[in-house]
Amino acid sequence: MQHRPSRTGDGSWTLLHEVHGEGFHAREGAWTQALLRYARECRVRERAEELSRAGATRFRLLDIGTGLGLNLAAALHELEGLGLVLEVEGFERDVCVPLAALELPPEEGPAGPFVARARAALSSWLDAGAPSGAWIEAHGLRLSMHRGDARAMLSSLPLEPRFDAVFLDPFSPKVEPALWEVDFLREIALRMAPEARLSTYAAGSAVRRALHAAGLQVGLGARVGAKREGTLASHASGLPPLEPRQARRLRRPWP
Ligand SMILES: C[S@@+](CC[C@H](N)C(=O)[O-])C[C@H]1O[C@@H](n2cnc3c(N)ncnc32)[C@H](O)[C@@H]1O
User: Fold this and answer.
1) Is the CATH number 3.40.50.150 carried by domain 29-250?
2) Least confident stretch, 71-75, 174-178, 184-188
3) In this structure, are strands 135-138 and 163-168 parallel, antiparallel, or unpaired?
4) What pTM did the predictor assign?
């Protein structure tokens, strides 16, 4: 078994990677991180309300490192009652991760029904033989999982339709540097709708500079649990500003 179950501070479950030791989520709360760092920071509900008023019927999410499906469960939570279908293009290299997630105890409290739906959709995908890039419509979402290295596969996704939010949640730059490089981030940027936000827990200068070099505005992500800040990126202005010293670093010539 490569991944070990671990209960986090808010009672929700995550996995620990037994090879490099990183948790899949923050120790203080996996669900809290999914909801606050990803779904809320990307303003999923506000964007969805705007899209709905403009006549849209779906919300498009790019989910890099789908893992246990907790982040996509948080997006489902935010869309509840709006009548929009969540359409997710998810990238996951290791099929053992969603498989291990299906063995975890059910989540309790407000996360419960949404995590159950995300796990059920991942289970349908696994039952179908984990096809790469095939649409599965189940449990109130449309899901297309891309199985393999996101870096190698993302550029083959069409540029349209664009994504309304991006959850960038691979392992850390220390462990998984390729998914934080500017070429990959540029492929993401090309597929983001003008008002879409990308959120990530990473807050180092190298990641922020790479997002900026990829053509995005870069802003300060909120404190979530013990993590003092994260990073937001968008084509649109209006993100919470970085500290002046951090903002100056972005303007240094690249690389
Ligand atoms: C921090 S966990 C993500 C947790 C997940 N977002 C969730 O909500 O449960 C990182 C995930 O990225 C996946 N991953 C790592 N490198 C990858 C790559 N190059 N391409 C696609 N997925 C990758 C890992 O297998 C792992 O499931």
Assistant:
1) yes
2) 174-178
3) unpaired
4) 0.97
